[in-house]
């Protein structure tokens, strides 16, 4: 009886696997992501205004601004597993750099047969 009660008490604790740690305004974009996107957008717009002032050409700076802001959104938006593409690349690079260990036992099938023939 006591074992069943202990099992039920242990089973009551439920921790969801992919629960986000903060509320999102849009799926995958929360406060941190909004602040990064806003910072990148502001810096890019300032750079675009300076480039327009220096070159008197509006097409290239506006096009570059759109591309940079789009990439910023793509890089900081989290997926359903609560990971960003930057984090995925970091995990992938850490895996490549890590030392792989392959445990095996050397077994030569020809040495076994040679030993039987010699006897």
List the main descriptive attributes of the protein structure presented here.
5 helices, 119 residues, mainly alpha
Report on the structure:
This protein has 119 residues and is mostly helical. The protein is built from 5 helices and no strands. The radius of gyration is 29 Å and the shape is flat. The chain starts with a helix and ends with a helix. The chain has one domain (2-85).
The end-to-end span amounts to 65 Å
Q: What average pLDDT do the residues reach?
A: 82
Q: Which term fits the overall shape?
A: flat
* H and E order: HHHHH
Runs in which pLDDT lies below 50 for 5 or more consecutive residues are none
The biggest beta sheet reads:
none
Q: Please identify the structural class as seen in this structure.
A: mainly alpha
Q: Give the assembly state of these chains.
A: single chain
Helical percentage = 55-70%
Number of domains: 1
Bin the strand percentage.
Answer: under 5%
Question: What's the short version?
Answer:
By secondary structure, this protein is mainly α.
């Amino acid at each position: 009886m006591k074992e069943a009660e202990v099992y039920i008490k242990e089973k009551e604790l439920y921790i969801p696997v992919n629960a986000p740690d903060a509320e999102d305004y849009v799926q995958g974009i929360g406060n941190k992501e909004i602040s990064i996107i806003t910072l990148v957008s502001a810096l890019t717009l300032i750079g675009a205004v300076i480039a327009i002032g220096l070159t008197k050409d509006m097409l290239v700076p506006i096009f570059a601004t759109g591309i940079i802001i789009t990439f910023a959104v793509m890089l900081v938006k989290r997926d359903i597993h609560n990971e960003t593409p930057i984090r995925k690349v970091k995990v992938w690079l850490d895996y490549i750099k890590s030392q792989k260990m392959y445990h095996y036992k050397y077994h030569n099938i020809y040495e076994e047969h040679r030993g039987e023939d010699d006897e």
